[in-house]
């Protein structure tokens, strides 16, 4: 088994008694892109802040490459944390941020920084505090990628970026990661858009880890059926449904398990269509995704069964 690059044991952070993170024990593999998922307030930023020694735990431990980062500057140098609300000195322009980063990060690539600045069209003249939200995010991405830090964290790096710029980010991240493999952990609410980047996911809910899994395994462990509501109900009866949804006379259900020949035959006889489950749907099916607005809840035609509320016995 590969040694973990990051381990946490019983990691807990409380604010005035309320737990932002509770008893988190993780072993994060090196050289993998991991998505940190979970609803607002789940504890994603808190976890990244603790690992990068920007905050201290109330209890538990963090170790990076076998050492406590808080006590080892050489470990901190190996990490880059791109925060969604990164602040810069008032008089800083692009060149100042780039110069500071080039001094701080030992693996800095000026060539990559120049290329990304051009691709994102980041302006050089105004001070950074005048940047738009999207330009600020683009600058964070430039610093995060060009740092080539062995461990890089991105906290919702896409805020304010238009679709073209987000596409550039995803492509450039994959390109540079392929050429210079490293450990990347990124928090996101755009699961559908970013799932092609993610190899593993950590799902947090109310400060606790509820899932830490390989994305392909997660996908392979569930499937979706869709068709006439009554046929979906019949199919679901003896299976483990993670979520079910009925709109008008049509139903869909996400089922846990590996699809076998018998399942296929039964689905076909009920006129049901079987489709793979997207990561977004799967996370939502486990009751952990961002709320999905399916339409007017007062609409009598729309009946949604909340995830996990009506699981059939397995
Ligand atoms: N400095 C603080 N003081 C008090 N409470 C805090 C502080 N920082 C975070 N929290 C609380 O800790 C919890 C976790 O916050 P965190 O920012 O880690 O969540 P998140 O998963 O990153 O959320 P989001 O997706 O909205 O960015 C929240 O309930 C938040 O209000």
TrEMBL record:
One example GO MF annotation: ATP binding
Record region (Disordered): 292-314
Keywords: ATP-binding, Nucleotide-binding
Gene3D superfamilies according to UniProt: P-loop containing nucleotide triphosphate hydrolases
All copies of domain ABC transporter, residue ranges: 6-231
PANTHER family, A to Z: ABC TRANSPORTER, ATP-BINDING PROTEIN, SKFA PEPTIDE EXPORT ATP-BINDING PROTEIN SKFE
The protein's name: ABC transporter ATP-binding protein
Organism: Leucobacter muris
